[in-house]
Design goal:
The complex is a heterodimer of chains A (264) and B (397).
Chain A (H helix, E strand, L loop, with lengths): L19 E14 L2 E14 L3 E5 L6 H8 L7 E6 L2 E2 L5 H11 E4 L11 H11 L4 H14 L15 H13 L5 E5 L7 H16 L3 E6 L2 H4 L4 E6 L2 E7 L6 H14 L1
Parallel strand pairs in A: 3-8, 3-9, 6-7, 7-8
Antiparallel strand pairs in A: 1-2, 1-4, 4-5, 9-10
Chain B lengths: L2 H14 L1 H37 L5 E6 L19 E2 H11 L4 E14 L2 E10 L3 H5 L3 E4 L4 H6 L3 E4 L1 H7 L9 E4 L2 E9 L4 E2 L2 E2 L3 E5 H8 L3 E2 L1 E5 L6 H16 L3 E5 H44 L1 H9 L4 H34 L9 H27 L3 H6 L2
Helix pairs in contact in B: 1-11, 2-9, 2-11, 2-12, 3-8, 9-11, 9-12, 11-12
Classes of the chains: A alpha/beta (264), B alpha+beta (397).
Amino acid sequence: MPDEIHNPGATGVCADGRRAVLRAAGVSKRYILDEIVVNALNGVDLSICDGEMLAIMGPSGSGKSTLMHIIGLLDRPTEGTVVVEEEDVSRMAPNQLAAVRNKRIGFVFQAFNLLARTSALANVELPLVYAGMSGAARAERAKAALEQVGLGDRLGHHPSQLSGGQQQRVAIARALVTDPSIVLADEPTGNLDSRSGIEVMVILQQLNEQGITVVLVTHDESVARHAQRIVHIADGRVVREEILTERIFAADRMKLLDAEENLS
Amino acid sequence: MNFLESVRIAMRALNANKVRSALTMLGVIIGVAAVILLVAIGTGVQDEVTGSIEGLGSNLIFVFAGNFEEGGSSGGGGIAIRKQFTIDDADMLQRRLGPEELVVPLVQGPAILKAGNRTMRSTLAAGNEHADAVFTAEYLGGRAYRRSEVAAASRVAVIGSTVRDRLFPHVDPVGRQMSVNGQRFTVIGHVASQGGSLTGDQDNQIYIPVTTAQRLLGSRDVSSIIVRASDPDKIDELQAQIRQVFTPSFGEEFSVFTQEQTLGILSQLLGTLTVMLAGIAGISLLVGGIGIMNIMLVSVSERTREIGIRKAVGAKTYDILSQFVIEAVVLSVAGGMVGIALGWSGALVLQQWVPTEVTAWAVALAFFFSAAVGVFFGVYPAYRASRLDPIVALRYE
C-alpha cells in the first residue's frame, strides 16, 4: 500500500530512530486582511527527519506557502511551537530568526532570486557574508559549493549570463554553502524547461543521498513524487501523509530523455 | 558583517547605476564647491583688507570725531557728529604728545583731475609734512611735500600709480601740471602701486598738503587725526593721553582706535560676512542632501527583492540599515571630494580677479558636512529598507 500512514508529526519520532531536525507542533497562523480573519494554518503538526527528502504538497491557497515561511523561519506562528535542532524558534525576534535562518536553512526559490549584476561566486558567498565569514575561506567554501552543483567553471558569470537551470543550480549552491539542517526548495522547477527541471531534481536527489535533508514545497505531484514522503496540505491542515514506495528518480528520467532525443 | 564588506556592497550597488549615482552626487558636488569657493573668497578678502591695514604699521592710532564706541553700532542711521576736528586740534595734540610722536591731520575728498585732454575721477588724501609716516608709499620719482608747502597751502601733489598711468602715460610726471577740481597743481612726485585697501584703490589717489585740501574743499574740518607712535609699546599710554587731551573740548564726542582695535572690528565684520556666505552655500548642500534621500528612497523600493533575498539568507536589520546608510555616505563623501577639488580649482582660477584663499578648516568642514548630509539623509531610506518584511520583499515583483 503506497498510502501507508506514518505520521511522525505529533510525536516527533522518525522512522529508523532518526532524529527530527525540525518539529512543528500545533502550528496555527492567522492574518487579518481587510478586517477579515484568515486562518492560513490550523494546528499543523509536522516533523522533518534528518536526512529525509520530504515534499509538502497542496494546491494554492492550501496554506502550503505559509507553512513554508514558518518552517523556513521567515515568519512566526500565531500559535504552536517550532523547534529547530532542539532550539525553540517560535517566539524569536526577527534578528534572532535571521541568525538561525542563516545557519540552519538553505532556500531555493522558484524565481531563483539571485542578486543581479553579481557573480555566481559572490551570490553563493552571500550567506557566509552574513555569517561573518571573510576572506579566502569564504571564497573557498563558495567555490566548493558551486563545484558540487557542477558549476565550477562558471564562478565569475553573472545571472544574466547563465541559463535558467544554471541559475537555479547557483541558488542550490547558495542554499548548501552554510551546511544547513534543511534545504527548503519552493517550486524549484516551476520556472524551468523540462530538461533543466530534471537536472535540478537530479542535483537535489544527489544532495539528499549525501545526507542533506531536502524539503520540496510544490503543488505539482510529479515533482512531489521525487521525495520519500509527501505531506498533503489542504485548508491549513495536514490531510494526509504518504510514504512513497515508488519514487521518481530524476537520473532515470534524464537517461530516458537522452535516449528519446538520440532516437529522434 | 564587517564595515569593509558593507562598503564593498555599497560600491557595487553605486557602480551598477553609474549615471544615477553621478547625478545624485552632482547636488553635493555643487554644494561643497560653493561652500569652498565662497569661503575662499570671504577669507581672501578678509586677509587682504586686514593685510592692507597691517601694512600701515602696527603703531598707528586713529582719532575720529563722533562717539563710535557707544551706540555706534546700534544707530542704524549712523552717528551724529556735532563737532569736527580741525588742524588746530592736531597741532595741539602734537604739542602735548611731544615731537617723538608724529601727528597727522587727514583730509579725504573727491577730486576730478585733468592733464591736457585727459580727465579722471580720483580721491585726494591730504596730510601734513609727516604724512609719509602714515601712508608709507614708495617713491618712484620726485619727492614728498615739505613743511613750508603745508604752511603755505601750496598746490603741489604726489600722484598714485593709476593716476600717473592715466594722465601721464610714458612720460616722467615730475614737474608737470595738472588741474585738481579746477585748480592748477604741480606734480612733485609719484609713488609705486600698493594695491587695493579698505578705502578703495590707493593707487587712484593724489597726496597733497592738508591746508591745500581744506581750501580746495572749502572746509576747515579734518576727517581724522592719525598718530604714529615712536614705539609700539607706548600705544596704550598714548591712547589714554589722547583722550585726556580732547576730553575738555570734545567731551565724549570723539573716538580713539588703535590699529589692533580697527583690525579687530574689521575682522569681526568680515568674518561674519564669510560665515554668511558659507551659510548660503550650505543651503545648496542641504538641497543636495535631499536629492540623496530621494534617490535612496527610489533605490530602496527598486531593490525590495534584493533586500528580501539578503534577509532570507540571514541579513539582520542592522546589516540592511548599514548597507544603505553607507551607500548614501559613499555618495555624499565622493561628491564632497569632487566638490572640494572643483571649489579649490575654481578659487585658483578666480584669483585673477578676486583675492581667494582656500583654508584647511573650510575643506575639513565641507568634507565632514557632506558626510553628515549622507548619514542624515541616508538614515530614513535605510531604515525603511531594514524594516521590510522578507516575505513581502521576496514576493515583490
